[in-house]
Design goal:
Beta-galactosidase, Chain A, domain 5, nine-stranded parallel sheet, binds alpha-D-galactopyranose, alpha+beta, Immunoglobulin-like, nine-stranded antiparallel sheet
Length: about 725
């Protein structure tokens, strides 16, 4: 059983593989967090709550109730009754008061995992994969019930959480904060690891020890953002890739968020994650329900590497859906860096024709095929074909590309509208805006009010016409600006602050309709590169464009940071032309291939114009990708080098689940004179098995030797050189 209830201690224990999480009902129905860590026998852990120390529980000593409130490790703390640490839940009641107080009412335990209404969430493929605990808490004066939902996965060190609020009273209540998770740690000796970034520099790993007070990352941009990813790990100071205790938190949501750790007066840490409560309000009328998105919590007793692999397994099996989930993805060629806006249908065909001869399988037409779009200053929202560029129409081009034996994919940016567009001229009120204020432009565009069904229906109608007009088998869904002047012409005054979240729900609704109506289409998300690389998006699209920076060396960091919690198989990665358009660096074609092979793989260059040498290299590069793709998609990922710490080299591995083969990839970033080979210890192999490297079958070494002593990696001459080694079990 993954979830058990101990009647005498009134405690709940969730066991997720080698991890357990204990919470319990204490005096007066308060819910306390008791333990999160390595699996334990069925001990009564009540002593950990220190209820026998001053301040005692209110039933023992009510004169110190407020001190009790400020010290109990609350499982889901509320605002206003004496707990001055960060709270997870706050309201405005019918009188405008903010205090509230949640007490245990009931619970239930069941197999499987519930879906969250309108939201992405991890799921079970069969009910025996997990068990769920629901605890109903109530605030009688406000007439609210909050159901805390916990799921423990049987074979993964994963516990997920969310909360559902219901107005069971007779009065309106405004929710001003509904976080999804709060976890108490009985120590302040932890490091906080976060992923910050910027456009073309996404997911930089930052690590610092916790200090007293609050430290957080967040987004108030309307998307998860380039700037901070909704991921945080808390770990022991000594934790590294392969050892030490780590707790990973990832939000299954694509809008505003907060991830915060607070070290409090008694040297404990309270961690919270949820929808950012800045500028958030939600009116809950009698009978209405609000659902907070899911937080995935991963525990690792063996370092960050194991934490990441657990996230990868969960997301590959229990988050990503659809026909492409477990399939090798078609090798695509995208025309963005090849032509930008300057193309015709004939030019696209020429690229496709050349690509098809080299073994590339899908032509993706990026931005600029619709309205009258020749630059980024027009036509978003006009999802009909730009006849001048697309002479003969879209279908004719798609048919010609299909006749080459290639699939065809298309770019959309469905959430946006250009001021210069038929859509905006007809419906200026459909853009998100504050009445009486000028609209702020960003990349020459405005954001459509996706809280409005008629807006979504209209955009979707246009998309459907295009999708039904030709054999389109892939969509790149882009989102190239963040939100400003967040107000809706369709919401009443007392619901205006709901727009941030209603916008995200609207995006999810449309992605859901698209993936339901067109289950064969492969959807790739994108947001100015990787501004929406989050678990919410992975629920709808099995791959996400990782970054607009396609330089192989920059990608070493970006992909390493992204792999903290997202699987490599979901990272959009392409071989592009050199000098690289973002950084001006020239790297060998082979290295670009080795780095892109870590992700979904494809090309983003004008294959008719690159050197003959590079063109000739493509078939072998594709063969190499094909050879290792199953390993990359289904194997365990091990980070070995770390460009954030040593930018002279990088290395990583993919090891098959049965440990029968492993791919080792190495990049020499800077070549140096008179150096001996580098000794690198392999990871993840079976220590007792023997392996040979494919190019030297006569040399057999034990997994133990390969991991404890390592291999000598050298013989590369020059900067940015790479090599791969394939180890096979004897
Ligand atoms: C964004 C994407 C790019 C490309 C352009 C097109 O920046 O990340 O890959 O699609 O938009 O405008």
């Amino acid at each position: 059983m993954s979830v058990t209830y101990n009647e005498s201690a009134r405690s709940f224990k969730l066991t997720a593989k080698d991890t357990c999480y204990v919470l319990q009902v204490v005096s007066e129905g308060y819910l306390a967090h008791t333990y999160f860590g390595k699996a334990l026998p069925d001990d009564d852990l009540t002593y950990l709550l220190r209820l026998d120390e001053n301040p005692f529980t209110p039933e023992t000593n009510d004169r110190d109730r407020a001190s009790f409130m400020d010290t109990l490790p609350f499982e889901y703390p509320t605002y206003g009754l004496g707990d001055y640490r960060e709270h997870a839940f706050a309201i405005r009641d019918k009188n405008g008061a903010a205090a509230c107080d949640l007490r245990y009412k009931s619970h239930r335990i069941y197999d499987g995992k519930p879906a969250l209404d309108g939201l992405p969430a991890t799921f079970t493929n069969t009910p025996d994969e997990a068990q769920t605990l629901e605890i109903v808490m109530e605030d009688k004066p406000a007439g609210l019930e909050v159901t805390l939902i916990y799921t423990a996965f049987t074979d993964l060190d994963v516990i997920t959480r969310s909360a559902v609020v219901k107005n069971v009273g007779g009065d309106d209540v405004k929710l001003t904060r509904v976080y999804s998770a709060c976890v108490e740690f009985d120590t302040e000796k932890l490091d906080m690891i976060t992923l910050w970034g910027s456009w073309a520099r996404e997911r930089v790993i930052e690590r610092s020890p916790l200090h007293h007070g609050k430290q957080s990352v967040d987004s108030m941009r309307g998307e998860s953002s380039h700037q901070n990813n909704p991921f945080t790990a808390l770990c022991e100071h000594k934790a590294d890739e392969d050892s030490g205790e780590c707790f990973g938190f990832n939000f299954v949501y694509s809008g505003n968020f907060i991830s915060q750790a607070e070290v409090t007066q008694h040297k404990k840490t309270r961690y919270v994650m949820g929808i950012n409560s800045a500028d958030f309000e939600w009116l809950l009328e009698p009978g209405e329900v609000f659902t907070a998105p899911e937080v995935v919590m991963v525990h690792s007793d063996s370092g960050l590497g194991k934490m990441s692999r657990t996230f990868h397994d969960l997301y590959r099996n229990n988050l990503i859906r659809g026909e492409w989930k477990d399939k090798r993805r078609p090798i695509l060629i995208n025309n963005w860096e090849a032509t930008y806006f300057n193309f015709t249908a004939e030019k696209i065909y020429q690229i496709a024709e050349q690509a098809s001869k080299l073994g590339i399988e899908m032509m993706v037409l990026d931005d600029g095929w619709f309205g009258h779009r020749d630059s980024d200053n027009s036509s978003l929202g006009d999802w009909f074909v730009y006849e001048k560029k697309m002479e003969g129409g879209l279908k004719a081009l798609v048919d010609r590309v299909n006749a080459l034996g290639m699939k065809f994919g298309l770019w959309f940016e469905p959430e946006m509208v250009s001021p210069d567009s038929e859509l905006y001229r007809a419906h200026p009120d459909w853009a998100i805006q504050v009445k009486g204020r000028p609209l702020t432009l960003c990349r020459e565009q405005y954001v459509l009010d996706y809280s409005r069904k008629e807006v979504r229906d209209y955009v979707y109608g246009m998309m459907r016409k295009i999708l039904d007009s030709a054999n389109i088998e892939y969509i790149k869904w882009d989102m190239n600006r963040q939100l400003t002047e967040v107000a809706s012409n369709a919401l009443p005054e007392n619901r205006q602050r709901e727009l941030w979240h209603r916008y995200v729900l609207g995006v999810y609704d449309l992605m859901n309709r698209l993936t339901t109506d067109y289950p064969h289409i492969l959807l790739e998300n994108c947001s100015g590169g990787g501004a929406r690389f989050d678990a919410g998006m992975l629920y709808y699209s099995p791959q996400i464009w990782c970054s607009d920076d396609t330089d192989a060396i920059e990608r070493l960091k970006i992909q390493h940071g992204t792999s903290m919690c997202y699987p490599c198989s979901a990272m959009g990665a392409h071989v592009s032309d050199c000098p690289n358009h973002s950084v001006g660096r020239s790297t060998p074609f082979e290295t670009r291939g080795h780095v892109a092979m870590v992700g979904t793989f494809g090309y983003e260059l004008d294959v008719t114009r690159i050197s003959q040498e590079d063109r000739d290299a493509i078939p072998a590069q594709i063969a190499e990708f094909n050879k290792y793709n199953t390993l990359v998609r289904t194997g365990d990922h091990y980070r070995i080098g770390n460009m954030f710490e040593d930018n002279l080299w990088d290395a990583w591995m993919f090891v098959s689940k049965d440990r029968s083969e492993a791919l080792f990839e190495f990049v020499q970033v800077i070549g140096r004179a008179n150096e001996r080979s580098r000794r690198i210890k392999l990871k993840g192999l079976d220590p007792e098995a023997y392996y040979f490297e494919e190019s030297k079958p006569e040399v057999k070494l034990s997994g133990a030797a390969l991991m404890e002593c390592g291999i000598n990696v050298g013989g590369l001459w020059g900067d940015y050189k790479s090599k791969i080694l394939h180890f096979v079990r004897v």
